[in-house]
Structure formats: structure tokens, C-alpha cells
Design a protein that fits this description.
Helix content of chain A: over 70%
Largest sheet of chain B: none
Radius of gyration of chain A: 20 Å
Strand content of chain A: under 5%
Distance between the termini of chain A: 31 Å
Number of domains of chain A: 2
Shape of chain B: extended
Strand content of chain B: under 5%
Largest sheet of chain A: none
Number of strands of chain A: 0
Oligomer: heterodimer
Order of helices and strands of chain A: HHHHHHHHHHHH
Largest interface: A-B, 98 and 77 residues
Chain lengths: 242, 110
């Protein structure tokens, strides 16, 4: 019997599963466009930023540090530190997409935003199995709406930013957009512990220049998550390990 | 506030290449070989280790020219987090936070 899902069908399945996320990506892009404009970037720079990097968190981090007058090297290192999670996504997708051609993998890499990873890995691990080609088609389907929405959101923000009245709390939209992604990730005690350590250490070291406190906080939080995970697994009763 | 034009372009280009390198890393170069478990265990916590710390000062410390944290922002973020944990859905979390922000801003702002 042939239950194979053809790549075109997988593509449209990806479009459907990724679709709702434009509700997050559009306002987030808008926020970046507005904040970039306020920091002094022109429309071309703002668009180049969003098209070349497509990573809102890192882009906002870089902007924030540049306006804080941090040295350029610190800006780059800290923003890339925010993106180290992409290396995890890359590692996690490799068993599913590693067989694609080098250009296809390069395209997957360029388009690897948080939502693309999260939606795709969920589908690869659940539901009817997909062939490698169908997996690739699904992935491109997921980003089909999400990535253009990011560009367009940024463009809108850059163009209309100066016309948004002062009383609109656009600054608060950034923490809301980020914390909205974090809430659903707090699945285990280890995740909660890591997030908690991250907040406490970052606040405690907020006086350090160049966001060095954030780097220390992130490393401490990752170690905490890993340790709590090991500890939880060890204390789990025998036979409950599946 | 004017940023140096050269600096802006250096940052954009460096982040473009650096971010691509991170995204391509394993997919492009490691192929199908698995990562050591300890590395995966650390990497698993990257998002929850970076983003809360990144946002904490903007949430818990006073904004420029104020002496205490912004209560509207605190409330909106608390609702965002609660809805996110409860529904496991980032879209609902964002809508909940945005609604809280909007209602409180209109209620207190006039």
C-alpha cells in the first residue's frame, strides 16, 4: 500500500500549520521596523537587516546595544549569542533534512526562524511519516508565509514608525512578543529553572557593561537546565524512564 | 541619536554571515552524525536561558526617567506568560498580553 504524502501536499500542509504564526511575526517585524527607525537606521538599512539576518531577537539585541554605545565587537558577539539556539535547531533538523542537496540545505538554513523549526520538528515527530522530499517541502511550506511576513512587517514599521503617536506603548510590545514564545517552552522543571536563573543573574549583573551580564546569565541558565535535567532523570523511579 | 553608518553596516553584514553559519552548521557540515548527548542537553536550554535574561531588565527595572518598574508592562508580561504556560500557544499568549497592555494603557493613560 502507498500512504506516501506527495511533496506538493506536504508543502500545503506546511503552509497551513505555519499560517497562524504570521500573527506573531507581523507585529514583531513591525516592532523591529519602528525601533530601528527610532535608533536612526534608514529604511534600506532596516530592510537589509531583516532580509539578511531574519532573526528578530538578535536584531533587536544588536540595536539595543548599538544605541547603548557598546563596542561593535560586543554588539556582534552578544547578538550571535542570542542566535546560538539556531545551531541547536540545525542539529535537531539534520536527521530529517540532512540528505537534501547542499543548496537546499543552505536555503533551509537561511530560512531557519524559531517558528519554522518548531512547527517542522513537531510535524516530523508526530503524524503520518513523511519521505525526506516531503519533509523538505513541508519545511518550505511553513516558511512560505512566515518569512515574507517578516520582511513586510519590518517595511511597514520602518515606513509608518514615525507616525505612531507617543502614547502607543510600542516599547512594551517587545517583551510581550518574546515572553509569548517562552511561556509554551516552560514544559519541564529544568526549563523553568533555567529561565529563572537567567532572569535572576541577568538582573543581578545588569550593572555590567556591554550586556556581559546576559552572557553570564545565559551560560549559568544553560548549565542549570542541563543539571536539573540530569538530576530529575536520576530521581525518576525505575521503569518510568520511557 | 545618530549611529555611525559604517558601524551599522558592519553589524548587519557580520550578523548575516554569523547567523547563517550557526543555522547551516550541523545541517551543512556534520551531516547525519549525531551530537554528543551533553552538547544536546546544554543546547536544549538555549532559548529559555537567553530570552528571559535578555528581557528581564526591560521588564523589572525602572524605565528611563522613572523610579520604579512600569506596572502596566509588568501586568501585560505576567498575563502573556500565564496564558502561554496555560494554553501552550504563543499566539494566544501574545494576544492576551497585547489586550492587557491596551486596556490598561487606555484605562490609566488619560
Amino acid at each position: 500500500m502507498s500512504t506516501d504524502i506527495a511533496p506538493p501536499r506536504a508543502f500545503w500542509q506546511g503552509v497551513r500549520n505555519g499560517g497562524p504564526f504570521i500573527l506573531i511575526v507581523a507585529p514583531f517585524g513591525l516592532v523591529f521596523g519602528v525601533v530601528a527607525g527610532e535608533a536612526g537606521l534608514d529604511v534600506w538599512q532596516t530592510m537589509a537587516f531583516s532580509v539578511a539576518v531574519i532573526a528578530g531577537a538578535a536584531q533587536l539585541t544588536a540595536l539595543q546595544l548599538m544605541t547603548d554605545q557598546a563596542p561593535t565587537l560586543i554588539v556582534i558577539i552578544t547578538a550571535l549569542a542570542v542566535n546560538t539556539r539556531m545551531a541547536m535547531y540545525s542539529a535537531s533538523l539534520t536527521p530529517h533534512l540532512g540528505g537534501a542537496s547542499v543548496w537546499q540545505r543552505a536555503a533551509v538554513a537561511y530560512l531557519m526562524v524559531d517558528q519554522a523549526y518548531a512547527v517542522s520538528i513537531l510535524r516530523y515527530e508526530q503524524g503520518p511519516p513523511l519521505s525526506p522530499r516531503a519533509k523538505l517541502a513541508f519545511y518550505f511550506g511553513v516558511v512560505f508565509l512566515i518569512c515574507p511576513t517578516w520582511y513586510l512587517g519590518t517595511l511597514m514599521g520602518a515606513l509608518v514608525g514615525s507616525q505612531i503617536p507617543d502614547w502607543v506603548p510600542i516599547g512594551a510590545a517587545v517583551p510581550i512578543a518574546f515572553i509569548a514564545l517562552i511561556g509554551p517552552m516552560l514544559r519541564t522543571l529544568a526549563h523553568v529553572a533555567a529561565a529563572f536563573v537567567s532572569v535572576v543573574v541577568a538582573l543581578g549583573l545588569a550593572f555590567l557593561p556591554y550586556s556581559l551580564g546576559l552572557l553570564v546569565a545565559a551560560l549559568a541558565a544553560m548549565a542549570t537546565g542541563a543539571l536539573v535535567e540530569v538530576w530529575t532523570a536520576r530521581n525518576r523511579p525505575e521503569g518510568d524512564a520511557s | 541619536m545618530t549611529l555611525d553608518q559604517t558601524t551599522i553596516w558592519i553589524v548587519i553584514v557580520a550578523l548575516a554571515f554569523g547567523t547563517f553559519a550557526l543555522r547551516f552548521s550541523f545541517l551543512g557540515l556534520v551531516g547525519r552524525r549525531p551530537l554528543p548527548p551533553w552538547a544536546l542537553r546544554l543546547l536544549r536550554y538555549t532559548p529559555v536561558a537567553v530570552i528571559p535574561g535578555l528581557m528581564a531588565p526591560q521588564i523589572f527595572l525602572p524605565l528611563e526617567g522613572q523610579s520604579s518598574p512600569d506596572p502596566v508592562r509588568l501586568a501585560a508580561v505576567a498575563v502573556t506568560l500565564a496564558v502561554g504556560v496555560w494554553t501552550r500557544n504563543a499566539v494566544w499568549a501574545m494576544l492576551g498580553g497585547a489586550a492587557t497592555l491596551g486596556v490598561l494603557t487606555l484605562a490609566l493613560g488619560v
